[in-house]
Amino acid sequence: MQLPSFAPVTDGSIRCSALPQEIVSARARGIKRRKRLNLESKMSQKFSAAAEPAILDFTKS
C-alpha cells in the first residue's frame, strides 16, 4: 500500500506542509552556520597546532 504524497512526515525531515520560503530560509541559515563553523575551525587550527603536543602527552600517560 502506497501512502499519499501529502502524508505527514514523522522522521523529522521537512514536512510537505512547510512553506517554501521557510524551507529556503532554513537552508540559508544552514549555509551561514556551516560557513561560520568552517571559519571557527580554521581559527581553532592555529591554537590546536600549539596544543597538540600537550594532548599527545596526555594520551600517552
| N- and C-termini, Cα separation | 59 Å
Large-scale geometry: rod-shaped
Helix percent band: 55-70%
Number of domains: 1
Mean pLDDT: 66
Give a brief outline of the structure.
The chain is mainly alpha-helical. It has one helix and no strands.
Question: Could you explain the architecture of this structure?
Answer:
By secondary structure, this protein is mostly helical. It has one domain. It is 67% helix and 0% strand. The radius of gyration is 21 Å and the shape is rod-shaped. It starts with 19 loop residues before the first helix and ends with a helix. The model has no long low-confidence stretch (mean pLDDT 66).
Blueprint (SSEs and pairs):
Blueprint: H1 20-60
Jot down its keywords.
61 residues; mainly alpha
